[in-house]
## 1
Amino acid sequence: MKYKPVAADGHHHDHHHHEHDHVVVNTATGDLHYGQGEACVSIPGVSQSRTIRLEQDVLGKNNQFAARNREHFIHHRIFALNLVSSPGSGKTTLLCETIEALKRRGSMVPVGVIEGDQQTSHDADRIRATGAPAIQVNTGKGCHLDAQMVGNAFSRLPLHGHAHGAGHHHGQEGGQGGILFIENVGNLVCPAMWDLGEAAKVAILSVTEGEDKPLKYPDMFAAASLMILNKVDLLPYLRFDVQKCIDFARRVNPRIQVLQLSATSGQGMDVWLDWILDGHRGLAAQGEQAA
Ligand SMILES: Nc1nc2c(ncn2[C@@H]2O[C@H](COP(=O)(O)OP(=O)(O)OP(=O)(O)O)[C@@H](O)[C@H]2O)c(=O)[nH]1
Ligand SMILES: [Mg+2]
């Protein structure tokens, strides 16, 4: 193995390093690896053990909120999907087209959308134009949605009222429930580790991004139940090897499901709608078993 952990402060020729520079140097190429410490991440001046403690504090609190959301969603038969991707992969376009396609199918299942972005309410406005209710969450400097934000936004959606207004007979607490789409902040890194209480993460990768993305951003694809390969209408103009991309995704997550889709041409939309509606029906079946 060429990789060799280097106690960086032991290197007299590099004055920038100090005791907490947890870097692993490939002595042959000079490549640097900052993710091989216990914390899998490096913060300047902070030890690995302190980094782990900080992360546990922050994520532990988030996980409590996420557990509360998840319990609430399951109880009320809300099928919650967390859509994650890099900026511009087509999340909002897909959501608008999905809402329209559900209407055309005559689906009576109520839908709600939470839109995460650093700034602007553009995406919530696009969703509202379809007639579906949406709450925009602006994260400011934040690079992801967290479970508390989602709980807060959900309580402002009519879906929440549906859930509580519906018949309160045994096994009927959620009535017909609903589908909650959460569009996360466009970012293939940070949203991977923040549980929102969703039933599934859906990673959207557009074919213009290159087939290697599942290997470069493995956490996101490992966390996702489904990968949607979007913009397949553009394949004739690109060098993108679909099979290679799927192989890469399966390498980081052997159980990941894959759908090829074009939000703009409508190709693959039917299979996607089936996937959503099956997921929602599956929740109802779970609820009946539990009742
Ligand atoms: N050709 C093609 N273009 C698409 C498709 N889906 C989305 N687009 C285009 O991709 C661009 C970005 O789409 P958005 O839906 O805004 O992407 P997004 O993921 O919501 O972006 P952020 O919210 O900023 O992260 C727009 O110009 C869309 O028209 C598709 O299936 N095919
Ligand atoms: Mg968007």
Note: DSSP finds nine helices and ten strands in the chain.
## 2
Amino acid sequence: MKKKFLLLFASIFFAITYSYGQTFPTSYLLYNGSPTTKVNIVILPDGYTTSQLSKFVTDAQNVVNVFFSRAPFNTLKSRFNVVIVKVPSNVSGAGSSPSYPIDNYFGSCFYTGGIQRLLAPTKTSKVASVLRSNFPSYDIVCVQVNTTTYGGSGGTYATYSMHSQAPDLAIHEIGHSYGVLADEYYAGAYYLGEKANQTKNSNPATIKWKAFLNQGGVGIYPFAENPAWFRPHQSCEMRYLGYPFCLVCQNQITQVTISQSAAYATAKNLKTNSQVNAAPMELCNFIRISPNPAVDYFNLELNAFKNDEQVTVYIYDIQGRLIMKKQVCGARTDEISTTQLKGNGNVFLVKAVGATNSYTQKLILAE
Ligand SMILES: [Zn+2]
């Protein structure tokens, strides 16, 4: 009973706080369980007018069908939900460049950063606002753009066009944003770094993918353009669209998905054991972490606390061990270094505890 009142209170608080946000029809394309226990993919349309929203649903379903036919997502399907939010645009399609925007809802344009094929939303605050008001429990966000011109981009929001290779674009970009994987083609010195599928270590006895060496084409392949760095395969989806993920990339995506499930389980456990009124995970955007995955630091934005409220931030690893504790002031953004977290895995739970409420959010640490 007490729990019921708490949920009611939380729902009213949620409704009041975000009543300014616009809501749109939202439905599941794939439902495997409560969003608090699954990895939630949200697909947002851009450049679909009201009369084209039924086409959006069909396009999204086609992408999702291909997505879950591919390894490792085919065997992990029951751990995912897929949600669509029907956001109409005034104008169909995408802008040809940020200099020539059109009146689509999220401002998606080609020629981002001067590269023709880089298709990305320019109005990212609108993406954040739609997510917050319609489905704040998102884990993976896709922006699906209604144009058949080839293009897409990774980063916080995986973006892809409806070119015939669109499902592969989406899968490749999710490999970056969700799987924290590197490109296996040479993308330039700026993108080199230690990742699950990229390393400077060429020693077969110690290389990070040694468990997969000589299976399914996995080896130690130097980049022709920079032979000090190595990739695990010659034709992985992270190199050429339309190929399967190599075993190394499949393993990484599987590990991330299992870790996320474990993080949810730990969060629920922490919530149950908490002395304060913990919010349901649906409300976890009362605190925001960016960038997430983080590398050397992350910004922690606390929206649910009073200006002068003392807030204690606890960071737990997925086994529930306290790794870091920090005092901050409520209703502001703090930059937090990840130095203390390194060496304790890739998935953490950040719990902010104020005078009367506490909120928990996942943090992923990229290598
Ligand atoms: Zn790979």
Note: Residues 1-19, 270-284 have pLDDT under 50 and may be disordered.
## 3
Amino acid sequence: MVSQLPLHPCTGREAAAAKAAGAVPYAGGTDLMVRRAAARRTGQEPPLVFLDRVATFRGITALDGALRIGSLTTMAELCSHPATPGLLGAACATVGSPALRNAATIGGNICTASPAGDSLPALYALDAEVELCGVDTNRRLPIDRLIIAPGQTALKPDELLAAIIVSTDTADRFYYRKVSPRLANALAKVSLAVAATVHDQVLLEMRIAFGAVGPTVIRCSEIERQCRNRSLADLAQSARRLADLAAETIRPIDDLRSSAAYRRTVAGNLLETCLHSLCAPTT
Ligand SMILES: Cc1cc2nc3c(=O)[nH]c(=O)nc-3n(C[C@H](O)[C@H](O)[C@H](O)COP(=O)(O)OP(=O)(O)OC[C@H]3O[C@@H](n4cnc5c(N)ncnc54)[C@H](O)[C@@H]3O)c2cc1C
């Protein structure tokens, strides 16, 4: 019975037990409260379990070669923390508006599992992992195995997202761009997050993730393979061809925010711009 469990728990295990009993996790509430409005009118809203007292879901901690980001970390905290990877900080800075970023958490952004969720392409490009907290056990998954479909995750009924783990020593160049109708409070029509490692004018590795152009974020592994170990000059010359390949790889749809054709064209153009910008000499 959910009513016999603490709905403002202090541990991840207690919070997971409340979720297993039917309570809905509340982090920043920015997504949840919009969606609960309809249920509220019919009086059929399940109870909430508030996560804010769960200390293990908080904070940004340096691990060995990695960063552990508690799921309750807000977008504003990520934007201002000196250890936040540049790519993730750039993506989180585009979420909503300043007021929204003070409440919205990265955990809520992930668990909403929207293809247009702004932190997701960056997390895919960083090869992030997630730490899940259950009643009896914890487990870790790559981010792309957590997000299954629009609005659906692989979380079990008794599991919560505790933290996100990102490596701190992967990429040395990044590119992030969100295309939306206006700068604040607008979801992406298309977004692109790229993390790259360059040494001696050679691109050693590149991870490319598009948002809002498929049911989940789309990684472009074939293009990544074609880019690996190529000189920047050579890569710049192939930028248009690779951009066309990206436009074929994605799976955009027509919806309220945009058309599939627009998304396909813009996604290709974004990758072309990104490749030219990553290949440009640094001062
Ligand atoms: C005006 C407005 C503008 C917005 N603009 C953007 C935007 O530009 N970009 C964008 O990506 N999003 C945007 N959003 C959506 C939303 O603000 C973000 O997705 C936000 O990051 C959600 O975080 P939250 O902490 O508020 O989540 P909540 O609303 O608390 O939760 C969201 C969902 O995740 C679940 N959940 C939360 N935390 C956990 C956890 N630790 N474990 C398991 N489940 C959990 C909740 O049960 C709920 O189903 C906008 C929303 C509004 C209202």
Note: The chain has twelve helices and 14 strands.
## 4
Amino acid sequence: MLRYLLLTLTLIALHSHAGESLLLTNVQVVDVEQGRLLQRDVLLEGGRIAGLRQPAAPAVAERTLDLGGRYLIPGLWDMHVHFEGTDLVEDNALLLPLYLAYGITAVRDASGSLAGTVLDWRREIAAGERLGPRIFTSGQKFEGVDSLWEGDREIADRAQMLAGMDEQQALGVDFIKITENTLPPALFLETVAEAHRRSLLVSTHVPLGLGIFELAAAGVSSIEHASYLLRLGSADEEDIARAVRAGELGADDANARYDRDFNQATANAAYARLAALDVAVTPTLIGGRQLAWLDETDHSDDAFLRYLTQQFTAKYQWRIGRMAGETAAQRAARKERYRLIAAQLPPLQEAGVTLLAGSDSAALNTYVYPAQALHDELALFVEAGLTPLQALQAATINGARFMRLGDDYGSISPGKRADLVVLEENPLEDIAATRAIHSLIRGGEVFDRAALDGMLDAAAARKQALETGRQ
Ligand SMILES: [Zn+2]
């Protein structure tokens, strides 16, 4: 504990104040909208970007920071994370500063079992009482009665849905999340429509009993997990959904038909319709990737385990256990399915669908490490065929616009909040550059490499303290 306190004190000493004006010089600004590098000095004032200036213009700031020709990007946003485990509150809390150390200045919490705690963290971080990324949260997600997931807002009818929506709104959640474990299709659709009627953003899975365009017509803002989009490769998607809803077709048969029918041209035409309806997609590739290659990968020496308690990684066994009986053919099919899902990214991008980079990191999502997994996700976007710029957009400007905060976040432009990451290499050439972080600026406050390393060391020390306390 003493070591943790000392590290925390060191952090306070190492970063500089947000209030003073600061001129960043000798830096290449990555313009994430146009995909170009700008040789500009960046003036920060009052936590915001006051202006971009020609280099060597007379100094106007109280302080100047020479960045040695490095690259400046907007703070990264992870648009799909979960904080879960009622027995893992401290285990999750210690990870919050890591997001900053990994260049991530905002996360969108797509619900877990810690809704009330996450709302507390959101307030504490905003108030400067806790180190962490800005949190957007759905609060409890909507589900049917006796759902598989812990902590859901379970609803049985329209009245309960409306009461739940009132309550979520009163809590000030940032969006509504809906999943399909036990929620009947009709009530699922009504919940989407109600959130939309209240002008709330609404992110969902896709029940087998609903067509993706039925959801779009009801006002869905984003579909979480690109795996659902494979259904659009079937020309009969809405008929299949209707048959499932009517009880004429079982889930296994419906899925078999989707597998059999998949046609890329049919899917691509549907993606253009989806883009026209302004429905965004959060692909979340890394989780499926980790599971599909579990049989060939040894994770026992992963560096990130430094920050994860045994109680946290114990949750990984749930999914590993569910896959234990798979045959060689099933394992091969899992890899093939991953490749087909990943292959949807270029046509989605081409069609104009807004892609949001989200890791789906969660204690229940095996080897999807919080913070680090966003960088893994971006690498998979590029491996799937997107350009580094498109991947970077999915983790910056796209998320900001999606959250209706495009005027305040997402690019390095005058008036926007000074949430910035300084990189050693050019991310437009190689997306792996997002991992080589020289320093972070959050609301104008500078965290140099030593300060970021201090956060990492503090998290590792906190993990050790939790383990020791539990022995
Ligand atoms: Zn998720």
Note: Residues 80, 82, 110, 360 surround zinc ion (CB under 6 Å).
